[in-house]
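Appendix B, example 12.
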Amino acid sequence: MDDEQPGWRAIEALYRDHAEWLRALVTRRLRAQPTEVDDIVQDTWLRAAGCKTDNIQHPKAFLSQTALNLFRDRKRREAVRQQHREGVAADRGGGDRHSMSEQEAILELERIVLDLPEKIRDVFVLSRFRHMSNAEIATTLGISIKTVEWRMGKALALCMSRLRD
């Protein structure tokens, strides 16, 4: 990377000042496996590199919250994968009738999501299918985090309403 980029030196300083602290925090607080700690710490620094360092007023709070969010996202994805594996195993023994109702449910969910207003749908898809945090969505769409939260709440309410119908 080019040292002349203005944010690069700030990230380098942030790393130099807080790298050991972050590794110790993730190891101690999240009680993760060593390889998982390495992944979370690396992903935290990648996230930090994507932010404007001028906006980071409390580096330790930012880094710890980012690492915690990444850890939660990782656990959520693992749970979804596990549910999927269990569902696939059940489908293999469950017969065609169960598979067909699952396919219908997936199609209905797809219809519900596609029927959402575009701005609300964009936030929902980025959150639920791209696994982006509210801050990442806000940055990507050029909106505030509060707007992301409001649109996500609206998307969930609309989906629940459609599912009840």
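The chain is about 80% helix and 0% strand. The mean pLDDT is 81.
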